[in-house]
Structure formats: structure tokens, C-alpha cells
Specification:
Layout (H helix, E strand, L loop, with lengths): L1 E5 L10 H13 L4 E4 L2 H4 L18 E4 L2 E4 L1 H12 L9 H31 L4 H18 L11 H9 L14 H11 L8 H8 L4
Parallel strand pairs: 1-2
Antiparallel strand pairs: 1-3, 3-4
Helix pairs in contact: 1-3, 1-6, 4-5, 4-6, 5-7
The structure holds glutathione (GSH).
């Protein structure tokens, strides 16, 4: 049995954008799974929370594939493509695969820290000029990559899934996507895919007036 530990949106939490990536991929692959909705306050954050036995970081997503436990969303995405594939979502050709992993790595190593810096500045009421400039720089890179194409790599892939889950989280932070029409077009393409329906992806787009 495949289990995904997720945080669905609740009063004190917007929901897990990292677990969203895994849920979307599982739907794209047509794999049945049990979604376990975790309360972070009681099940993740306390030092003795039971789920810390599965992920010592106290974070979601956590995957339980018949007793094989995996955490870190990028690793889970690759593992699922490899174990349930082959799938075009993670090509086997080294160059096509390399291009997907490049954007997947960029999302985790570059976009997420910039997003967190912006989030902390906004929530803490601090000066966010540097964080906003950094994010504009990154959205510019993404926008140029998406100019004239529907996906970040050579075809729809786990890089679109990772970026498609995290980039819209900027919208509730008040980031204006008007200067990035290619990013908006790409989000509109993702919005049509059944795997993205009924998720916080749509809630984020709504917060930015994009649906
Ligand atoms: N690098 C990790 C980050 C995981 C992460 O930050 N998860 C957040 C939700 S997106 C979480 O579980 N937060 C727990 C909390 O809010 O207490 C990954 O990609 O899986």
C-alpha cells in the first residue's frame, strides 16, 4: 500500500505545497494511494511527535511505499517515476533527464529559499525590497524559459509539477504576475490538467485573481 502524509489546508496552515507535488504526480501516474492528512501542530512539530520516527525533520511529504519510507519531495518525485515508470514525466535519455533535473534542482535550491525569504519578510512586516527583487529576478528566468513553450523542459515533467506547486504560493503573498505573461500562460495550461483539480494550486491562483 502506498501512503502519502500530507497537510491539507486548515485554519492555521495553508497546506503543504511540497506534498501537493507528490499528490499531483501520483494522480498523473494513475497510482492509487492513501492520503493521510496530518495536523502539524500535534503530529509533526513536537519533538516527540510520532511522525518524527518517519521523518526526523518533522515535515511533509512523507511517502510510505509498503514500508519503504522516503522524505524530501524531489527525491520522492524521482523515486515514483523510477519505480512506477518509465514515464515521460522523467525521461530516461540522459540529456532530456538532465534538463528536467536541472529545473527540479533549481526549484528546490533557488526558488524555495527565495520564496521563504519573501514569506518571512511579508509575515514579519520587515523590509522586503531585497527579497522582492530576488524573486523578480527568478520569475524573469522562469518567464524567459517559458516564452513560446508550455513546459519548463522538453515536455511536461516533474519539473513542471514541482514549480507548478511552489510558484503559485507567491500569489497569496501579493506577488504580481502581470510582468510574466508566459508564467501565467503556463499556469493556465496546468490548470486544465485533471491532476491539479481540487488542490491548493487552485486556491493560490484564486488568491492572485488568476481563476
Ligand atoms: N525540503 C522539503 C521541505 C518540506 C516542507 O517544508 N514541508 C512543509 C510543508 S510544505 C511542512 O511539512 N511543514 C510542517 C509545519 O508547517 O509544521 C521537501 O521538499 O519535502
Amino acid at each position: 500500500m502506498l501512503r502519502l502524509y500530507h497537510i491539507l489546508p486548515r485554519a492555521d496552515h495553508p497546506g503543504s505545497h511540497n506534498a501537493l507535488k507528490v499528490a499531483v504526480l501520483l494522480r498523473e501516474l494513475g497510482v492509487d494511494f492513501e492520503l493521510i492528512d496530518v495536523d502539524p501542530a500535534t503530529e509533526l512539530r513536537p519533538a516527540d511527535a510520532p511522525l518524527r520516527a518517519l521523518n526526523p525533520n518533522g515535515l511533509t511529504p512523507i511517502l510510505d511505499d509498503d514500508g519503504f519510507i522516503l522524505w524530501e519531495s524531489a527525491a520522492i518525485l524521482q523515486y515514483l517515476c523510477d519505480s512506477r515508470g518509465p514515464t515521460p514525466l522523467l525521461p530516461t535519455d540522459p540529456r532530456r533527464r538532465g534538463r528536467v533535473l536541472q529545473w527540479l534542482g533549481w526549484e528546490a535550491s533557488t526558488v524555495i529559499p527565495a520564496l521563504m525569504a519573501l514569506y518571512q519578510a511579508r509575515v514579519g512586516g520587515h523590509d522586503d525590497v531585497a527579497a522582492s527583487q530576488r524573486m523578480a529576478f527568478l520569475l524573469g528566468i522562469l518567464g524567459r524559459q517559458l516564452g513560446g513553450r508550455d513546459c519548463v523542459a522538453d515536455g511536461y515533467s516533474i519539473a513542471d509539477i514541482a514549480l507548478g506547486a511552489s510558484v503559485p504560493a507567491l500569489l497569496p503573498l501579493g506577488v504580481d504576475f502581470a510582468p510574466y505573461p508566459a508564467v501565467r500562460r503556463w499556469l493556465a495550461v496546468l490548470r486544465e490538467r485533471p491532476a491539479w483539480q481540487d488542490t491548493i494550486f487552485l486556491a493560490d491562483l484564486r488568491a492572485g485573481g488568476l481563476v
